[in-house]
Amino acid sequence: MTLETPEAPSEVLLHSCCAPCSAAILEWMLDHGIKPTIFFYNPNIYPQKEYLIRKREIDRYAEKLGVRIIDGDYCHELWRISVLGLENEPERGKRCLACFSHRLLVTAECARKEGITHYTTTLAGSRWKSLEQIRAAAERADSLIPGVRYWDVNWKKGGLQERRSVLLKENNFYNQLYCGCEFSMGHLSDEQKIIILK
User: Fold this and answer.
1) Per UniProt, where does [4Fe-4S] cluster bind (predicted)?
2) What Cα–Cα distance (Å) separates residue 162 from each residue in 5, 27, 168, 169?
């Protein structure tokens, strides 16, 4: 897989939203001599049952790869405060920017504490997410947390989207039906919502 990237650091803190979105990125990093540490920080995920399912999957994959994982705290109420007043925003609207800003700020702080100078996010590999919003959120985090820098890679490129699909099937990952927050469940059928919220 050929992927255009800025100069690659030797070690990266990878903010992971889930195992399916992380798998191809982690594989690419390991294949290119980059040491990843996974940071699972997703207080946006609702309900907690869904959060735990997604966490279990990334834990399982990290163990398979022998990659260290750091578990961020799950505090959905804190995340709700970060998007207060933006509940009715559309997907890719101001709520998503606020969500990314919160999660990447905490990621940058984790990188600083761990002594890892660069961080990136699997959010930049999702076809449903705005790269412009992710970059704006990372720019804000970089300005507030000295000594760390966002490694700006478009993880949608270089065949990683296709590889994601292959790894999803190979590892029999749980493949979620929505972004994670309760406000992104609008496109789900009533039946799907019942299953998730049950």
Assistant:
1) 17-18, 96, 99
2) 18, 13, 10, 11
pLDDT, one tens digit per residue, over 40-88 is: 999 999 999 999 999 999 999 999 999 999 999 999 999 999 999 999 9
Q: CA 171, CA 34: separation in Å to the nearest integer? A: 22
Residues of the binding site for [4Fe-4S] cluster: 17-18, 96, 99
- Residues of the chain where predicted confidence (pLDDT) is lower than 50: none
Q: Spell out the domains of the chain, with CATH numbers in brackets.
A: 11-197 (3.40.50.620)
* Total-model pTM: 0.95
Residue (of 143, 148, 68, 74) closest to 111 by Cα position:
148
What Rg do the C-alpha atoms of the chain give, in angstroms? 16
Q: ω into residue 47 within 30 of 0, thus cis? A: yes
- 125: CB partners within 8 A, 6+ apart: 21, 24, 25, 155, 156, 160, 161, 164
Residue 48: CB atoms within 10 A of its CB come to 11
